[in-house]
Specification:
- The protein is 4% helix and 52% strand.
- It has 2 helices and 59 strands.
- The strands form 13 sheets. Strands 10, 13, 14, 17, 18, 20, 23 and 24 form an 8-stranded mixed beta sheet that branches. Strands 19, 21, 22, 25, 26, 28, 33 and 34 form an 8-stranded mixed beta sheet that branches. Strands 27, 29, 30, 35, 36, 38, 41 and 42 form an 8-stranded mixed beta sheet that branches.
- The longest helix is centred in the C-terminal third of the chain and has 19 residues.
Length: 743
C-alpha cells in the first residue's frame, strides 16, 4: 500500500519532472540545554547531494561529536544535535543539489536553560551571631525569579532588615540567631514558561559554648583527702566536647586522672604537692571553643622530717636540739619539755619556768623557714628527758619526741637525820641521782659497811637508792654514816646522822568543853615528837583524889580534839594527856579540872538546871565534813555533845542533794562511832546532811551541815583536774632534785 507522502511526491514529479524541492521537519525547534534533538531534511526530485550547514555557514561534517549528519536514503538527510548548549542555537540550512539544480530549506533552533539548582546544599551550618549566607545557586534561561520561604511564609525583606536576597539569589541573614534555625524553601520561577522548582534547605545555627567552673579554687590536702575533684559545666550547640588540660597537656583517664564520660569532672588521684596549679577546662563544638581556669591548691599537713636524740654532759656551755618539718602552709615549730612550752623569741629561766624573759637566760629558740633549734645553755642534769617538737599549720600538726641524755656526776638525796632506838631497825636512804648509774658504798669511820664485825648492819640496793639498815644494840651504833656514790663523771659523798629517838613531850590541853555526860578536850600536839611520829594519845580522867581512868586514841594529822564519854552530870573531874611514839610514852600534861553540866529537860530553863536531874534526849551533835581524795566521797565527823544523862544508843544519818526532795535511805551508825563515809555522790552537787543522836529518852535535834562535792575531773582540763595529783608529785620530785643546786 502506497504512503500518502509517496503519492504526493509522485504527483509533484509528474508535474515538474526537472524541479527539486526541500522540506525540513520539524519546521522549527526549541531545545533545552543538555537535551538532544534531530531534524529531517526531505528532498523531492533527484538530488545527488544533500548537505546541512551550521549557523556559521560552515558545512557540517560527519565526524563532529555534538552535531551529527547522516543520510539514510537518496531523499533524506538527518541533522542530530546532541546535548545542546547555548552555542547550538541558530539557523540551520539543508541544501539539495543535482548538477546545476539546487534547492534549500532552513530551520531556526532555539536553546533554552531549564531551572537547574547548581548548588543548594542541605544542611547549611552557621555560628550564632554571624552573617549567614544561605546558598541557593539556580541557573535558567531566562534567569529565574528567586523566592525564599520560612515556616511556610514568604520572607519579607522589606519588613525585616536582617534579611536580604542577594543578586546571586542567596539569602543573607544578618546576625543569625538560634531561633532562625529551621527549614528554608528556595523557590525558582520562570514566568514565560510557567516553570517552577524549589529546594528545601535545612539551616542549623551552632552556638558557641559557654563554660562555668563550679569552683574557681579547689583546696586539697596531700596524703589525707587522697583525691581532688575539679568540675565545670558547659553549654552550647551542638553539645560541646569537654576536655581538661594542665601545663598545656591534655589529660586523659588513667592511673593519675579520671575524666567523667561527659568531661565535666576531673578527678585527680593521690594528690601531691606537685599537682598544685591551674587546670584548664575546655569546651569545644563547631561554633568554636571556650575555656575556664580552675586553680588547685594543695596543702600539706606538717611532718617532722628530722629530730635526733642528743647527748651532753652537765656544766657544758650549751647543746642545740634541731627539729625540721615539712608542710604547706609552712608550719610553726614549738618545743616543749614536761609542762613548759617554748616558741621562737621566747627565752626562759629554769628557775622560773612560768616566766618567759627577753634576757639571754638558759633557753633560746630560733626558727628559720622549716627548721627550729632549741639551745640549752649551762647544761644541768635536770635538762635530761624527753623533748617534744610540735609542727603546726592550719591543716594539722605533727609531734615527735627526742631524748636529751645528760651525763652527770652523782647527786645524793635523802633525809640526813634518821631517828630510832635500841632494838628498832632503821633505814638510812642514800638516793643517788646519776648518769651513768653510780655505785654506792657505805662507810663509818673509814671502814666500809657492812663489815665482818657488824651483824646488825645490812645494805639493800635498788637501781637508784641504797638502804643502810641498822638495828642499834648500843649507843655506839648512833652517830654519822657516810654514803659515797661514784660513776664515770665523778663522785659525791654525804654524811647521814642516826640519832637516838626520845619519847615525845606532853601535849598541851587548851580547853575542855564539858557536857552532862561527855567532855570535848582540845589540845595542841607536843613541842617535841622525839624524832619519830606520834602514834597514839592517852587521855586520863578521874574524880579528884581517886584513880585515873584512861583511854588511848590513835593519832592522825588532823587530830586536835578527843571526846571523853561516860561522865556523870554535875561532877568535877581532872583530865590529863600524854603522847606515845615508837620509843614510848612521854610525860603527861598538867591536870586540868572541869565540871560536867547538869542534865537539862526540854521544860527546864537554864537557871533551874542546877537543881534539875531529869533525863532527856541528847543534844544535837556538832558536824565537820572532810572531802576525801576522790572528790565525790565525804567523811562526816561528829563531836558528841550532851547525851541527856542516858547513854547514846546509836546515830542516825540522813542526806540528800539540796535540789531534790527525796532523802537517801537512813544510815544507822553504832554509838561508839565518830564518823560516817558518804560515797558515790554526784559531782559538783551541794548536799544537806543531818545526824541525829538517840538515847533511851528519844532523839536529839539533828546536827545539820551542807557541803558541795568537787567538780567532775573528766570535765576539767588536765592541768586543773584529776591529773594534778600526778603532776604535783612530779613537780615535788623535781623540786627535791633541783633545790640543792639552786641554793
Amino acid at each position: 500500500m502506497l504512503h500518502i507522502r509517496d503519492l504526493v511526491w509522485g504527483l509533484l514529479l509528474a508535474g515538474c519532472a526537472a524541479a527539486i524541492q526541500v522540506q525540513i521537519i520539524p519546521t522549527q525547534g526549541e531545545i533545552s540545554v543538555g537535551e538532544s534533538k534531530f531534524f529531517l531534511c526531505e528532498v523531492v526530485g533527484d538530488a545527488k547531494d544533500i548537505d546541512w550547514f551550521a549557523p556559521s555557514g560552515e558545512k557540517i561534517l560527519p565526524n563532529r561529536q555534538d552535531i551529527f549528519v547522516s543520510r539514510s536514503d537518496e531523499t533524506t538527510a538527518t541533522l542530530t544535535i546532541y546535548h545542546a548548549n547555548v552555542d547550538s542555537a541558530g539557523i540551520y540550512k539543508c541544501v539539495a543539489r543535482n548538477g546545476d539544480k539546487e534547492a534549500q530549506a532552513t530551520v531556526q533552533v532555539k536553546i533554552f536553560q531549564k531551572i537547574t539548582f547548581d548548588s543548594a546544599p542541605s544542611p547549611q551550618e552557621f555560628n550564632e551571631g554571624d552573617d549567614a549566607d544561605i546558598v541557593c545557586d539556580v541557573v535558567s534561561s531566562p534567569p529565574p525569579t528567586i523566592i525564599w520561604k520560612h515556616k511556610g511564609s514568604k520572607i519579607q525583606v522589606a519588613k525585616d532588615v536582617r534579611y536580604k536576597i542577594m543578586d546571586n539569589g542567596h539569602l543573607l541573614i544578618r546576625g543569625i540567631k538560634k531561633i532562625d534555625e529551621g527549614m528554608y524553601n528556595c523557590e525558582a520561577r520562570i514566568m514565560a514558561r510557567g516553570e517552577i522548582d524549589f529546594r528545601m534547605i535545612k539551616v542549623i545555627v551552632n552556638v558557641l559554648p559557654t563554660i562555668r567552673a563550679r569552683l574557681s579554687e579547689v583546696n586539697a590536702t596531700a596524703d589525707i583527702t587522697g583525691s581532688a575533684l575539679l568540675a565545670c559545666d558547659a553549654d552550647g550547640f551542638p553539645e560541646p566536647i569537654v576536655t581538661w588540660a594542665h601545663n598545656n597537656v591534655v589529660l586523659e583517664t588513667g592511673d593519675k586522672y579520671t575524666v567523667s564520660d561527659d568531661g565535666s569532672e576531673l578527678l585527680i588521684k593521690s594528690v601531691k604537692k606537685v599537682d598544685e596549679g591551674d587546670y584548664t577546662c575546655i569546651a569545644k563544638n563547631k561554633a568554636g571553643e571556650k575555656s575556664e581556669e580552675v586553680s588547685l591548691n594543695v596543702f600539706v599537713r606538717p611532718r617532722i622530717t628530722y629530730l635526733n636524740n642528743q647527748t651532753a654532759s652537765e656544766f657544758e656551755e650549751q647543746v642545740t636540739l634541731t627539729c625540721e618539718a615539712s608542710g604547706d602552709p609552712t608550719p610553726a615549730i614549738s618545743w616543749s619539755f614536761q609542762n613548759r612550752v617554748f616558741t621562737e623569741g621566747e627565752q626562759a629561766s629554769w628557775t622560773r619556768p612560768d616566766k618567759y624573759e627577753s634576757l639571754d637566760r638558759n633557753i633560746v629558740v630560733r626558727s628559720h623557714a622549716r627548721v627550729s633549734s632549741l639551745t640549752l645553755k649551762n647544761i644541768l642534769f635536770t635538762y635530761a628527758g624527753e623533748y617534744l617538737c610540735t609542727a603546726t599549720n592550719s591543716i594539722g600538726q605533727d609531734n615527735e619526741h627526742m631524748y636529751l641524755e645528760v651525763r652527770y656526776a652523782p647527786k645524793i638525796l635523802g633525809t640526813v637525820t634518821v631517828y630510832t632506838w635500841e632494838g628498832n631497825a632503821a633505814n638510812i636512804s642514800c638516793e643517788a641521782e646519776a648518769h651513768p648509774r653510780a655505785s654506792v658504798v657505805w662507810s663509818r669511820d673509814g671502814l666500809q659497811l657492812p663489815s665482818a664485825n657488824t651483824t646488825n648492819v645490812k645494805v639493800y640496793n635498788t637501781p637508784t637508792i641504797s638502804y643502810l639498815e641498822i638495828t642499834p644494840d648500843s649507843m655506839y651504833n648512833f652517830g654519822t654514816y657516810n654514803c659515797t656514790a661514784t660513776n664515770a663523771m665523778g663522785s659525791e659523798s654525804k654524811e647521814f646522822l642516826l640519832i637516838q629517838a626520845d619519847v615525845p613531850s606532853s601535849p598541851e590541853i587548851e580547853q575542855v568543853e564539858p557536857f552532862s555526860s561527855t567532855a570535848v578536850v582540845s589540845f595542841e600536839e607536843p613541842d617535841s615528837m622525839g624524832g619519830v611520829p606520834i602514834i597514839k594519845y592517852r587521855v586520863e580522867w578521874r574524880l579528884p583524889g581517886q584513880d585515873w581512868t584512861g583511854k588511848e586514841y590513835h593519832a592522825n594529822d588532823e587530830m586536835t580534839t578527843v571526846t571523853i564519854v561516860g561522865l556523870k552530870p554535875e561532877t568535877t573531874y581532872e583530865v590529863k594527856m600524854s603522847a606515845i611514839n615508837g620509843k614510848g610514852e612521854g610525860e603527861s600534861s598538867p591536870a586540868r579540872t572541869f565540871r560536867t553540866e547538869p542534865v537539862l529537860s526540854p521544860e527546864t530553863s537554864a537557871p533551874d538546871a542546877i537543881t534539875s536531874v531529869a533525863l532527856r534526849e541528847p543534844t544535837a551533835p556538832k558536824l565537820v565534813v572532810r572531802v576525801q581524795e576522790r572528790g565525790n566521797i565525804l567523811k562526816v565527823n561528829w563531836i558528841k555533845q550532851d547525851d541527856g544523862g542516858s547513854p547514846i544508843k546509836h546515830y542516825l544519818v540522813r542526806y540528800k542533794a539540796k535540789h531534790v526532795s527525796d532523802w537517801k535511805p537512813e544510815i544507822r551508825v553504832p554509838h561508839n562511832s565518830e564518823y560516817v563515809m558518804l560515797s558515790g555522790l554526784d559531782w559538783n552537787t551541794e548536799y544537806e546532811i543531818h545526824v541525829v543522836a538517840e538515847n533511851q529518852q528519844g532523839k536529839s535535834a539533828p546536827g545539820v551541815i551542807s557541803y558541795r562535792t568537787a567538780t567532775d575531773p573528766t570535765t576539767v582540763p588536765a592541768t586543773l583536774g584529776c591529773r594534778c595529783v600526778t603532776y604535783s608529785l612530779a613537780a615535788l620530785l623535781l623540786s627535791v632534785l633541783t633545790v640543792p643546786w639552786l641554793s
